[in-house]
Amino acid sequence: MSLESVTNSIDDAVSDFFEPVAEHVGDFVFYAVPVGDTELPLIVAWLVIAGLIFTTWFGLIQVRKFKLAFDVVRGKYDEEGSAGEVNHFQALTAAVSGTVGLGNIAGVAVAVSIGGPGATFWMILCGLLGMATKFVEVTLGVKYREEHEDGTVSGGPMHYLPKGFAERFGSGGAKFGKVLAVLASIMILFFGLFGGNLFQTNQSYAQVASSFGGEDGFMASSAGAVLFGLVVASLVGLVLLGGIRSIASVTSRLVPAMAGLYIVACIVVIVGNISAVPDAIQGIIDGAFQADGVTGGVIGALIVGFQRAAFSNEAGLGSAPIAHSAVKTKHPASEGLVALLEPFIDTVIICTMTALTIAIANPPSWAEARENPDSVGGVTITSDAFATVLPWFPDVLTVAVLLFAFSTILTWGYYGLKAWSYLFGKSKASETIFKALWSLFVVAGSLLSLDTLISLADSALFTLSVFNIIGLYLLAPVVKRELNSFLEFVKRRKAGLPDVAEEAEPAKSLD
Length: 511
Hints:
Layout: H1 3-29, E1 32-35, E2 38-41, H2 42-57, H3 61-64, H4 66-73, H5 88-99, H6 102-114, H7 119-143, E3 146-147, E4 153-154, H8 157-213, H9 222-240, H10 243-272, H11 277-289, H12 297-313, H13 320-324, H14 332-339, H15 341-361, H16 364-371, H17 379-387, H18 393-424, H19 428-445, H20 450-494, H21 500-510
Antiparallel strand pairs: 1-2, 3-4
Helix pairs in contact: 1-20, 2-7, 2-20, 4-14, 5-10, 5-15, 5-18, 6-12, 6-15, 6-16, 6-17, 7-8, 7-11, 7-12, 7-14, 7-15, 7-20, 8-18, 8-19, 8-20, 9-18, 9-19, 10-15, 10-18, 15-17, 18-19
Pfam family, one: Na_Ala_symp
Protein name: Alanine:cation symporter family protein
Keywords: Cell membrane, Membrane, Symport, Transmembrane, Transmembrane helix, Transport
């Protein structure tokens, strides 16, 4: 049996298994009600409402405390002797590496193809609202994190749901929190697999095949796809063995570099077409209320915009608290403020830059995708947009795409490991099994279709948000107290006074 026949058999088996699952699961999760000329999935409204409620509840915290968040990242309010594994900047970059990925490149291309340029407006709005949601969940993640004997830390919905509910509602609440925690852990594994792993491999392979393979080249074949997957899987497995310190060490270097490279490239395209910028911005604003994408109508643009923004920034999923919980701090709300910067960086800045680049360059592949929903592409549309100004840049973009994908797979590997350990126990054997499975599944990502992966990832994402956001609503008063405590600490630090806890220490020693 030849190598080609083996790889073709693997390709067929993977597709035959996942594609029917994607179709049926998507129909169930995205139950929709008629609104105007289209339908509104109730699960999308669930995320929008959560962002609105938390923005109101905490008094536009994403605006009022934006500068304070940057001060915390810079280490201005660090304290000696704080429990944790990484500093604020490393925690932010580790979490951002899980959100700033191919959702910003390929996901945005999908959004502006299906929903038209106007989907960008709704993506930005979703990002701004998501900042408040992210603040709430990360504060809870640090508040209820678990510190292990070996110095490592575990956090996320699998910890703050049962612990927070037990603290607020007693034993009955603890049982309900436990149920939510188990369900959330399961969905973290599923979304991590489809969105944080397979989708990243799929789109990075698509860019590599487009740049170097051609339609009939080796990289465009099943054998090329399998080989690409095996190489990425090997690299992922090696880094995962080092844990969060290893991941943070890699992402703290990769994320700023790749984000900077990508943003500079977007600026070059925009500046190269500077005369088209006003029309592109006007098209985004007009399209938000007069959408011309294949979904049709304003609600269609809104739905697509919110779906792709939620996929990209992950606000409300409970994933980011897993990375942020490893931070060195005594004040949980300090890291919550750091976390609200994520959707701003991810969605408001990077996603908007991508959308503007596509709208300004207007490559033929984008026009084709807007006219024909069956031909909607991902990363190749963005790549074509860059090529209109910088013919050589798709090759550079390939490098950026690989870095985006690699860092996201690493971070979601860490998220998945924490969920796996919660469900199956924290042991060397259990962790090794997960890391092997996670790396093995990387290979499948290069074999599946984009539509299948988006359907599976979205289904897991929005189901996860249901379980997590229920907990966020019920535990929001805890977050309010933690915020007030940190703001009091900041006030005393600025006045040159010791922290309240430090003042209480002598009295405690006299008892």
